[in-house]
Specification:
By secondary structure, the chain is of the alpha+beta class. The protein folds into 2 domains: 105 residues, Aminopeptidase, CATH 3.40.630; 167 residues, Aminopeptidase (3-Layer(aba) Sandwich), CATH 3.40.630. The longest helix has 16 residues. The radius of gyration is 21 Å and the shape is globular. The chain binds coenzyme A. The site of coenzyme A has 20 residues, from strand 11, helix 7 and helix 8.
Length: 311
């Protein structure tokens, strides 16, 4: 087994994505997505990525990086993937990854895995404990009938896609960013979210190559932004991926989120997608209620794990 640093060449990106997509075809990635994440890494964020080879062929990957959403001193996200059938290599590649990350003197390691993946059991065996759980779920638009759910919004409230709003202008982006920060405060993350600085948010979110200005909807009262939902392009065939959905506290329980989601579903159909995917915290009853009423079907949960690191 050869364990070597990733060299950031096109060939390595291709091999990295192929290995991960063969390992878990249910979570497809593209080279463009991985490169976007790598390009928007902040200066103080670290990344160590390694390719695992057998007879010169890439068969696995392993990496550590600074957590993106809740950065903490001396905390690192770690993960690995090996092609199906090669799970016997995991203890050896894990030992090599731990050797690399231990140079950073970590206090905490973080990871995530779907509950039905072999990685889940392996991480538990390495002393990781569960801290959060999210359900991925999918709506099949072929069977979807929005009619029984549709109801009018209060007077003066309208839904508009970003493509009909001045979303490239700085003043608009500042208000949009403020809205997202307010909404994120109420998402039940297991650890407080550390918001990205405005400039980082612009690079990672507004300039995300998967962002669809026609599939990203705002609820507005005049110029005041009340809420939003967003669909992103996905590497999965015929699929769009939901990002954040949220409505400001003073405007909740007026059917705004449901109307936003229905508008997004209408867009997805017109776009030619068959599936909409989303991911929700298991304790987010308000959002789960809306998704259940729309007909989203749950898949295996993604489990978020932590390990206190003993050097
Ligand atoms: C989840 C959220 C977007 C719902 O927005 P909203 O505009 O209040 O939702 P709606 O008014 O469209 O609700 C539609 C239905 O969903 C269900 N629902 C909404 N909020 C609920 C709650 N707090 N508890 C239980 N059911 C709820 C109800 O069935 C409701 O219909 P009803 O009001 O006639 O009973 C909002 O609570 C929010 O912004 N939360 C914080 C951000 C967040 O967690 N987003 C999800 C993560 S992606």
């Amino acid at each position: 087994m050869n364990f070597r640093p990733f060299d950031f060449s096109e060939a390595d990106y291709q091999a990295y994505v192929e290995v991960l997509n063969q390992t878990h075809p249910e979570v497809l990635r593209s080279v463009g997505e991985v490169q976007h994440l790598d390009k928007t890494r902040a200066r103080d964020e670290v990344l160590g990525r390694f390719m695992v080879e057998l007879e010169g062929q890439a068969v696995g990957v392993a990496e550590y990086e600074s957590p993106r959403n809740a950065p903490k001193a001396h905390a690192y996200e770690v993960r690995y993937g090996v092609q199906p059938g090669l799970e016997g290599m995991v203890p050896a590649l894990w030992a090599l990854l731990m050797e690399q990350v231990s140079r950073l003197k970590p206090k905490e390691l973080q990871t995530q895995a779907r509950e039905n993946w072999p990685e889940y059991g392996f991480y538990l065996s390495q002393g990781f404990v569960e801290v959060d759980r999210r359900w991925d779920s999918v709506l099949d638009l072929a069977d979807f009938d929005p009619t029984p759910l549709s109801r009018p919004l209060a007077r003066g409230i309208e839904l508009k896609p970003l493509s009909e709003l001045p979303y490239t202008q700085d003043i608009f982006q500042r208000a949009w960013y403020d809205l997202e920060l307010k909404l994120l405060r109420d998402v039940p993350f297991s650890e407080p979210l550390v918001p990205w600085a405005f400039e980082v948010w612009q690079q990672r979110h507004v300039e995300d190559p998967n962002l669809l200005p026609e599939g990203y909807f705002m609820a507005l009262e005049g110029e005041k932004m009340l809420g939003l939902t967003m669909l992103f392009k996905s590497s999965r065939p015929q699929t769009l991926q939901t990002g954040l959905t949220g409505v400001l506290p003073g405007h909740r329980r007026q059917g705004i989120a449901l109307a936003l989601k229905l508008r997004a579903a209408k867009f997805a159909r017109a776009y030619g997608a068959r599936y909409i995917r989303t991911s929700n915290h298991q304790i987010n009853r308000p959002m789960l209620s809306i998704n259940e009423s729309l007909g989203f079907v749950r898949e295996a949960a993604t489990v978020f794990l932590r390990r206190e690191f003993m050097c």
